[in-house]
Every structure is written in structure tokens, then in C-alpha cells.
Amino acid sequence: MEKLRHRQELVVSLLFGLWLPHCLTQTTPPIRANLASTPSGSPQAQPEQLKVRLGGYPRKHNEGRVELFYKGEWGTICDDDFSIANANVLCRQLGFVSATGWTHSAKYGKGQGKIWLDNVLCNGGEKSIGLCKSRGWGNSDCTHDEDAGVVCKDERIPGFVDSNIIDAQVDEKKVEEVRLRSVIAPGRKKLPITEGVVEVKHKDGWAQICDLGWTIKNTHVVCGMLGFPHERKVNKNFYK
């Protein structure tokens, strides 16, 4: 009798041991199925320190050709599938409250370099254009005749700091960051800063550039680094 009871307990324990893991596998969603259900054209991983600027000519400070700094190179966005939602995301990245419109067919002139994004589809609430759906970085069938542009509302986001700094991943012997520091009171309140003392990042601080041997070509390069289409003559005596 005792042996019979022992056999019954053994059978029950074996059945329970087979039944329990089966229930667990049924109630736990398979990871593979979740990965397979991810739709194509998913948002791109946010690039580290993605920079956005407006370029082209003629234009005002709150409009222009969209240019993105990615993997050490400036590039543009194709106008395929572009929308006001995309423009809103970009304008907020630039420090404006919203967009009032967008342009196609290289209205502000053709850009250079890569066409970084194509078929961009934003919902409008993304914090960065890099979080919107697209064909992927550098995957495009467009030419620069299709460069997209935006027109932002000329109203700044409260507290947004626009330092006019462009980050670049270059070797240690070259300039990594450059900025303009306004020395006149009205210039400090107006953004973006278009005139001032040229400073470069050095170690943990900023250093001015000596004007000895400085030429209009140097000014042209700095203005281009800061996203401006060209330079204009400045009164050097004012800064002495």
C-alpha cells in the first residue's frame, strides 16, 4: 500500500514538472516574435550631438536649406515626403518655437556633400530629426536639386541657448569648435550672433584669434563653419 502511494506521488510530481514549464512558455511572449513585428522604416538611432544649421542664399536668419552634421560631414535632406511636421521638428532643434512652412527643389540653392536623409516621416513631436522614420543615414536616390528647406517662425524658444557652436570630430591639431562672442550690447540679445570676436575652444576654455595676417578668406571660412552663406566687411577698429 505504501509503495502504491509512493508511485502515485511520483507520477503526480512528474506530471507537475512537465506541466509547469509548458505554462511558463505559453504565458511569456516570445522575444523573436516581438523583433519580427518591428515595422520597416523605423526611427533611426539618435546620432550623438547631431547638429543642424540653415544655409543657402538669399534667406533670412530663420529660414534656409537644412543641413545636418553627421559623422564629421555636413549634408542635406531630400525633399521626398517632406512635410510641415518635419519642419516643426527641425525648427525646434534650431531654437524656434515652430515652423511656418517648408521648401523643396533647392529653393535656397544646392547644397554640397552627402544627402544624409531621404523620405523622412516625422509625427511632429520628436525631439530630433534623427528620431523620425527615414530610409536610413546616407541612403538616398536624390540629387542636390531636391534639397529641402524650412521657414521657421521668428520666435525663439524661451531659455533656448544658441551658442553658434559647430562641433566637429577632427584630429587634435585642428580646431574642434568655433564661436562668435558679441561685444556690443544689442548683439548679445539678437540670435543668432552674426558679428563679434572669433573664439576657438582650447582645452577647458575659449581663446581669441589674433588678427595678425587675418584675411577676408579666413572670415569666409569661419562664417561657413557657423552656417552663414557669406561674410561682410566689418569695422576692425571698433574691436581694438
From TrEMBL:
PROSITE patterns: SRCR_2
SRCR domain boundaries: 52-153, 178-240
SUPFAM superfamilies attached to this UniProt entry: SRCR-like
S-S pairs: C78-C142, C91-C152, C122-C132
Record's keyword terms, sorted: Disulfide bond, Signal
Signal peptide interval: 1-25
PANTHER family (alphabetical): LYSYL OXIDASE HOMOLOG 3, LYSYL OXIDASE-LIKE-RELATED
Protein name in the entry: Lysyl oxidase 3B
